[in-house]
Structures are given as structure tokens and as C-alpha cells.
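Exam review. A common question shows you a sequence with its C-alpha cells and asks you to describe the fold in words. Practice with the pair below. Do the first one on your own.
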Amino acid sequence: MDASPTEPSYQMIEYIFFDAALRDRFVEYAGGQGVACTQEEDSMGFVVAVPEDLPEATADLLDACYEALQEEQAELTEASDEGTHRYLAGFRMELPDGSHGMVPLQPDIAKRLLGEFSLDEIHDLFATVAKYALNPQDVPVCKVVEDEGP
């Protein structure tokens, strides 16, 4: 029998913040939706994690709140002289093994992405990039499409 600690059987969705007040607003909003959060601080910023198995409507509300707070973060950054040298926006990325990471972006690029794509589309884009970055294929694109189907 393996004596190693048992890991939780559920996955977490992580949201990153670069301002404690914005993080606190997100945690408060999530709590108002009945969602328990875990929080930690790492080298990139403030990480808030919520269970991945949330009802879709609740997950959509949290994503919309996060997007709005990221726009506020971008505005705060633009108003700050020191903000031009820091990554202050990020998107969650799912890796092929099911773990999650964060893609830091300059706020103006994040804002442009959010202006053209939904959060789900951005997550899918980064997941695809991660998949092929971790398993590069030196084949023509048409061959990849044939192998994977539509």
C-alpha cells in the first residue's frame, strides 16, 4: 500500500490578481455566489482557486467578474508610471496533463484578446498552444487537421 498523502479528487480553477483589493473583491463576490475559495500568494501575484466542478452558470458569473476586474487592473496599470514594466494580466491555461498554469500578458494585449474572444475561447487557444509546445509536431498543418478531424 502506498503511504504517500492522498491528493484531492477534484481540480481547481485558478485566477491570478496583482492587486490585493481586486483579489478581495473577487473572493467576496465568489463567497456571495456560495463558492469557497482558497488563496495564496506566489511570485506572480495573488492566486485565488475555486473548485472546477461548479455549475456552469456560477462558473460563468465568476469568469465575468474576473474579466471585469482584469479590465480594472489594466486601467490601474495605465495610470501607474511603474506599471509599464510589469505583467499585470493573466489567463488560466490548462496543460495536457490536466494541471493549470497562468499565462502572464501585458494589460493592453489582454484587453485586445478579451475584445475579440470569449474567455472560453482564450482558454482553448492557450490549451492548444500548450499541447503543441509540449509535444511539437513537425508536420504540415493540413496533416494535423486530417489526424484530429474537424
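Now try the second one, then compare your answer with the model answer below.
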Amino acid sequence: MKRILTALALGVAIAAAMAPAMADSETKPKAAAAKVPDGSPVFLENKCNQCHTIDSRKIKKLSEDGPDMKAPDLSGVGVVHKAEWLSAFMQKQEKLGGKLHLKKFKGTDAELKQLVNWLVTLDDPEAAKKLKGAAAKDAK
């Protein structure tokens, strides 16, 4: 009985010692995302929401009377694309489905970096599936 209690106490001690590390590993991605400056002001100032929405952040299109296009919701763009690619795409140096981005980003390099670093934190899985589906459809 003494051995069982000793083993049980040891197991509890190990679990207690590991709990902070396990909790830390679960919060690191969220903490890293929290350290990224909010790019939504840059997104809005440059009127990216004239075409795009970010439903996960409650950012809607400026108006339904805007350009007649099917620009995607960017809520999952961080799952689909890396920062380097997004930066090049917004500068019309990269194509998606054989097409360049409609408008070249006109902000500063610092604003572009802030925007792109924020966009890659947008990781809504359902929106990412739609983006991947649209990209696959465009590639055909």
C-alpha cells in the first residue's frame, strides 16, 4: 500500500510540474499572435475592405455597391499563405490563379509589413477551406 501511495504521489508531482509547461505550449501561438501589431487600421485606411471582408474580425465590405468582384473573406488567409507571398502579391509581384492583385498596395513598407504580419495571424479554418477551394478553382 505504501508503494502505491508513493507512486501516486510521484505521479501527481510529475503532473503538477509539467502542467505549466503544457499550458505554456498551448498559449504560445496565441501569445505570439498577440504580440503582432494590429494591422486592421492599415487594412481599413488603405480601403482593402472595399473588396475584402474579414468576418472573423467583423470587418465588412465598405458597401455592396462597390466593385463587382468576388474578393474572398480573408479570415483564414494566414493558414493558406505565408507573409512573403502575401507581400509580393499585394505589390503585384506574385500571381494567384494566373492573375495579379487588382490594386497595388500604396502604403509604406512599414505599413505593408504590419498588414502582412497581421494577416498571417488570421487562421479561421472554415474560411481557409474556402480560400483553398477558390484558389484551386482559379488554377483550372
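Model answer, second protein: Residues 10-18, 21-29 have pLDDT under 50 and may be disordered. The chain has two domains: 1-35, 36-139. Full marks require stating both points clearly.
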